[in-house]
Amino acid sequence: MTANLPMGIGLRAPHVDEVLDTKPDIGACEVYSEDYMSAGVSWLNALDHIRSAYPLSLHGVGLSIASADSLNMNYLRRLRALIDRYEPLRVSDHLAWCSLNNRYFSDQYPVPRRRFVLRHLVSRVHKVQDFLRRPILLENIATYLKPDWADEYSETDFLIELVEQAGCELLLDVENLSINVLNHGGDPATFIESLPRNAVTEIHLAGGEQVTLNGSTVHVDTHSREPSPATQSLFRQASDRFPNALRILEWDADLPALPILLATAQCCVSGMIQ
């Protein structure tokens, strides 16, 4: 039961050796799937040792589940090879698209919440899960500009329909949720409470930044800071709502020393960061 595990961390390359040497008390280690798809022997062997010591979560950025392109079977074969080798606790990616006409982009782009898009997603999720032989988790993304299309579903209704029809699970990123509320408005507490308890099986926590764009403040998901008090509050609400979800603190840019990362993760659980 993951409810009894301590907070997990996004394990990035600079910390791998230290984690193996010191074996800190970590609930799970999340790694980016793409980092290991073409990795050398030393990286793969190190992940073998990580997997023997901790539950592992594979988190991807290249699935492009909502793209109009055909599914990238070469990508899926490499992902399945990782799954077969490491038997991760979770496999996740983003509810978004990042490719078009076989060209990949460096960001995740939002999905129109329309009926035909839902049908497209359900079909693709079924194919991916059948190929991987396991359910996948799809993460809510941060958005910075309001889309100019008309949605037919609320975000929570769209997610509920996707889970019910496709049999997938959800990765709730509370920093992305916080950013979207700051950028566009909304009620994050209602969002969290509206999701079915059995749908969310992983929660991400991170810290973002503010940038000025054309004289306006935009909140951006940078994974470069400790989480804000508002995001921590949402994290604790989500942890209460989904007590068996795996919980991961992500930190990618301006990566701190491992003891600081671990202390931040623990403080987020206990609510001590101010």
What does this structure look like?
This protein is an alpha/beta fold. It has one domain (2-270): Alpha-Beta Barrel (TIM Barrel), CATH 3.20.20.150. 42% of the residues lie in helices and 20% in strands. It is built from ten helices and twelve strands. It has helices at 13-22, 33-37, 41-53, 73-86, 115-132, 155-166, 174-184, 188-194, 229-241, 258-270, and strands spanning 8-10, 29-32, 56-59, 90-94, 97-100, 103-109, 137-139, 169-173, 200-205, 209-213, 216-220, 246-249. The chain is globular and about 50 Å long. The two termini are 29 Å apart. The mean pLDDT is 94.
Radius of gyration: 18 Å
Q: Note the gap between the termini.
A: 29 Å
Helix content: 40-55%
- Mean of all residue-level pLDDT scores: 94
Describe the structure in brief.
This is DUF692 domain-containing protein. This protein is an alpha/beta fold.
Secondary structure blueprint with pairings:
Elements lengths: L7 E3 L2 H10 L6 E4 H5 L3 H13 L2 E4 L13 H14 L3 E5 L2 E4 L2 E7 L5 H18 L4 E3 L15 H12 L2 E5 H11 L3 H7 L5 E6 L3 E5 L2 E5 L8 H13 L4 E4 L8 H13 L4
Parallel strand pairs: 1-2, 1-12, 2-3, 3-4, 4-7, 7-8, 8-9, 9-12
Antiparallel strand pairs: 5-6, 10-11
Helix pairs in contact: 1-3, 5-6, 7-9, 8-9
